[in-house]
Automatic annotation (TrEMBL):
Lytic transglycosylase with a strong preference for naked glycan strands that lack stem peptides. The gene is rlpA. CDD domains: DPBB_RlpA-like. Residues 47-139 form the RlpA-like protein double-psi beta-barrel domain. This is Probable endolytic peptidoglycan transglycosylase RlpA. Coiled coil: none annotated.
Amino acid sequence: MMMWVSILSMVLVSCGPSYEGYMTRSYTVRGGHYRPMQVEQALQYRETGIASWYDESKYFGLKRGNTSLGEKVMPWHVSAAHKTLPLPCVVKVTNLSNGRSLKMRVNDRGPFIDGRIIDVTPRAASKLGFKKHGLTEVEVEVVSVGDGKHKRKAKKKSWFAWW
């Protein structure tokens, strides 16, 4: 019984957001310097490009990756990494080859491979229908930026805006 309580508490601790506000500080990875967007710019963000998936975790906490926000990444999480969006934010990712879409939390940095705009977790890749292929063309649109009292929602565009 104690073992199950211990496992359940590990699961609950690893779930949910642990960062309030948003992170927009510049950073350097592999010799590349990246400057994240400001919140106002990110709230208007929409881009089409290549998505990939990455696995930073293993089962039962034997090896868990940490995101740029210090959050644990577990195999059942649906989250993503982006080079220049403020962290955290929520994006809607649509797989353009099959029309599947999914909202997910961006809480990490990457992908650091030219030509890719977003990395998603294995579960997100499965739900979007491209895990077996590894890469797919997607549209990424910001839904909100920040957590807690700092959360800002993107404004929905009406069809009148196109006229």
